[in-house]
């Protein structure tokens, strides 16, 4: 693999780790888009676990969650409250201290769909008022397959959809999908078959059952990251997140300085999703001395050694100190100029 490609892949992995660790205000607003096939709860639990390690205050705003989740400091019930009352209650739980010593705050919304239905035009103002400083990181989930019932009074005809506004405001977007379904699509592509569809795209009548396609060896979920840097450049990459089983022994963390028990790797590095047509060439001593790998087979290497370069006889000593003299024969289309040096 070329060093440039390897560097970009490592850089994307470090950015994802930085986002999960809430380091240096990596993303004031992180939007998680999930579906019935793959919930965003494993990603939210990873945010909570890393926030507990960094001793950040965790505030959970509930629209659909009935019981207080584990490792949550403050549990706020938001259903039935006005935006002003909800904001006042959330901000009242922010830690206070001397300037320059503010503690980190992880603010979690279990779903934004009720807010997008009730006040679609006020979503930017409400979310912006909750991010009062660089110490506050907002992580919100939006269910993409839950339809929004928008009335003409709440949303104008020419106003953008709430999801479009959220995608524009978010500095990081995480899209979750089922790993088992990704494996099934990969197998279909390898056999030159039509990729199967799942969930609502399947177009079947009846009850929709999520996570029906699951491989025993494909535990985990796929997370597609899109993070917007301060320079305006967007970095996109796909990862596989394997969370530890609830109540069980934590898994050994890989490629992470924070031991939360989760394993994170690039999607292209997963054993079930690696490209079977990708050539794997052994690194020779000649390739090790270069900054890139030629990836030549044995036959190609022999053919390269047998190639006779043009004007090869000019590289030998012809005699009389004329070694290295350039030999050139003019053609009919050449226009000889007397002012040029003699060839």
UniProtKB/TrEMBL annotation:
<keyword id="KW-0963">Cytoplasm</keyword>
<comment type="pathway">
    <text>tRNA modification; 5-methoxycarbonylmethyl-2-thiouridine-tRNA biosynthesis.</text>
</comment>
<feature type="compositionally biased region" description="Acidic residues">
    <location>
        <begin position="332"/>
        <end position="343"/>
    </location>
</feature>
<dbReference type="InterPro" id="IPR019519">
    <property type="entry name" value="Elp5"/>
</dbReference>
<keyword id="KW-0539">Nucleus</keyword>
<dbReference type="InterPro" id="IPR027417">
    <property type="entry name" value="P-loop_NTPase"/>
</dbReference>
<comment type="similarity">
    <text>Belongs to the ELP5 family.</text>
</comment>
<feature type="region of interest" description="Disordered">
    <location>
        <begin position="324"/>
        <end position="343"/>
    </location>
</feature>
<keyword id="KW-0819">tRNA processing</keyword>
<protein>
    <recommendedName>
        <fullName>Elongator complex protein 5</fullName>
    </recommendedName>
</protein>
<dbReference type="Pfam" id="PF10483">
    <property type="entry name" value="Elong_Iki1"/>
</dbReference>
């Amino acid at each position: 693999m070329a060093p440039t490609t390897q560097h970009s892949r490592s850089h994307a992995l470090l950015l994802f780790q930085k986002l999960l660790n809430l380091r240096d205000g990596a993303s004031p607003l992180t939007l998680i888009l999930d579906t019935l096939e793959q919930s965003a709860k494993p990603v939210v639990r990873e945010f909570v676990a890393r926030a507990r390690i960094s001793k950040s205050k965790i505030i959970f705003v509930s629209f659909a969650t009935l019981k207080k989740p584990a490792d949550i400091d403050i549990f706020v019930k938001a259903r039935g409250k006005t935006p002003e009352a909800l904001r006042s209650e959330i901000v009242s739980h922010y830690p206070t201290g001397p300037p320059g010593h503010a503690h980190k705050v992880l603010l979690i919304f279990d779903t934004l769909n009720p807010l997008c239905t009730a006040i679609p035009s006020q979503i930017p103002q409400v979310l912006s008022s909750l991010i009062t400083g660089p110490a506050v990181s907002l992580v919100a989930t939006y269910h993409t397959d839950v339809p929004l019932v928008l009335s003409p009074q709440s949303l104008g005809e020419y106003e953008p959809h709430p999801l479009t506004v959220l995608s524009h405001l978010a500095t990081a977007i995480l899209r979750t999908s089922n790993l088992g379904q990704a494996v099934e699509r990969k197998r279909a592509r390898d056999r030159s078959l039509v990729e199967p569809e799942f969930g609502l795209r399947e177009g079947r009548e009846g009850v929709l059952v999520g996570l029906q396609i699951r491989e025993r060896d494909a535990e985990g979920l796929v997370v597609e990251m899109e993070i917007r840097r301060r320079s305006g450049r967007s970095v996109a990459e796909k990862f596989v997140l394997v969370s530890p089983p609830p109540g069980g022994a934590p898994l050994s963390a890989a490629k992470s300085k924070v031991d939360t028990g989760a394993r994170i790797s690039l999607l292209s590095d997963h054993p079930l999703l690696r490209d079977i047509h990708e050539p794997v060439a052994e690194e020779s001593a000649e390739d090790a001395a270069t900054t890139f790998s030629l990836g030549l087979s044995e036959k190609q290497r022999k053919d390269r050694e047998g190639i006779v370069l043009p004007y090869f006889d000019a590289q030998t000593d012809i005699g009389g100190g004329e070694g290295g003299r350039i030999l050139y024969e003019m053609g009919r289309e050449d226009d000889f100029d007397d002012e040029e040096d003699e060839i």
